[in-house]
């Protein structure tokens, strides 16, 4: 199971939000590349990056920082935030990004998602399903659509998508625990590979996600952010916990 340490970028800094609220952020570092290198020294092989400014603006804002992250680390980087055109996907993959994450585009322009999967492959395109009270949030989590998370999952599967990132917005950045059961239900019903995100607070959660994956739930990985920055546990401890089969 893959553990993705998270770097959320705002104004070129590494920040964490509470429940996705842009005005409720804490700055943890002014050097995203240094943070990525630290994660690499702890054993990371993958990195989850969100351009928060881009998510709000609908375009990649922290592009130069992202380019440095990709070129100066060797990590497999997946990136989201404001990716809503084929041109932006092509540009990011051209930088060496391993995967792009499509969120708002999956709701507002599903045919573009289908074209992206057909052109770049299902291993390079991930859909982010961000849940607020069972509905899908878009536009940097500002707007809640009428679409249910399961319906979006089924729609994306039909378009060739094979993996999603599931985030319960109310838990994100709160250290209250991830919605593991909700993620498991989504994986079981849609038969998509699911990366669990939002609210991971303990090593026991990582062990549980790993155990559920071994039992057949379609969990491919987990994204960890606030718990690392608040020093609830280290990335090395997280990687060890995610490797345990109990």
Number of β-strand runs: 12
Cα(first) to Cα(last) distance is: 14 Å
Let me know the average pLDDT.
Answer: 91
The outline comes out as globular
Counting DSSP H or I runs of 4 or more residues, the number of helices is 11
Arrangement of strands in the largest sheet: 1-4-5-6-7-10-11-12
Structure characteristics:
alpha/beta; single chain; globular; 12 strands; 246 residues; 8-stranded parallel barrel; 30% strand
Structural features, described:
- Helix 9 (203-214) packs parallel to helix 11.
- This protein has an eight-stranded parallel barrel, surrounded by eight helices.
- The chain contains eleven helices and twelve strands.
- It has 246 residues and is of the alpha/beta class.
Helix and strand topology:
Elements: E1 2-10, E2 13-18, E3 21-29, H1 32-41, E4 46-51, H2 52-57, H3 63-73, E5 76-80, H4 86-94, E6 99-102, H5 104-108, H6 110-120, E7 125-132, E8 135-138, E9 143-148, H7 149-158, E10 163-168, H8 180-190, E11 193-197, H9 203-214, E12 219-224, H10 226-229, H11 235-242
Parallel strand pairs: 1-4, 1-12, 4-5, 5-6, 6-7, 7-10, 10-11, 11-12
Antiparallel strand pairs: 1-2, 2-3, 7-8, 8-9
Helix pairs in contact: 1-3, 9-11
């Amino acid at each position: 199971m893959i553990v993705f340490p998270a770097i959320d970028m705002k104004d070129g800094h590494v920040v964490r939000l509470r429940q996705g609220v842009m005005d409720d952020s804490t700055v943890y570092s002014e050097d995203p590349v240094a943070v990525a290198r630290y994660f690499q020294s702890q054993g990371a092989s993958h990195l989850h990056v969100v351009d928060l400014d881009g998510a709000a603006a609908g375009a990649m804002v922290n592009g130069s920082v992202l380019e440095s992250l990709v070129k100066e680390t060797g990590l497999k980087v997946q990136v989201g935030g404001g990716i809503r055109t084929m041109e932006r996907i092509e540009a990011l993959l051209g930088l060496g990004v391993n995967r792009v994450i499509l969120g708002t585009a999956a709701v507002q322009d599903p045919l573009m998602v289908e074209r992206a999967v057909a052109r770049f492959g299902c291993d390079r395109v991930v859909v982010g399903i961000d849940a607020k009270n069972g509905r899908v949030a878009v536009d940097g989590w500002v707007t809640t659509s009428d679409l249910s998370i399961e319906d979006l999952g089924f729609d994306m599967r039909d378009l060739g998508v094979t993996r999603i990132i599931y985030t319960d917005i109310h838990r994100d950045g709160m250290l209250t625990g991830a919605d593991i059961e909700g993620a498991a239900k989504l994986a079981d019903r849609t038969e998509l590979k699911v990366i669990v995100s939002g609210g991971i607070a303990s090593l026991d959660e990582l062990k549980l996600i790993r155990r559920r994956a071994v039992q057949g739930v379609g969990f491919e990985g987990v994204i960890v952010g606030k718990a690392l920055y608040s020093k609830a546990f280290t990335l090395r401890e997280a990687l060890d916990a995610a490797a345990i089969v109990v």
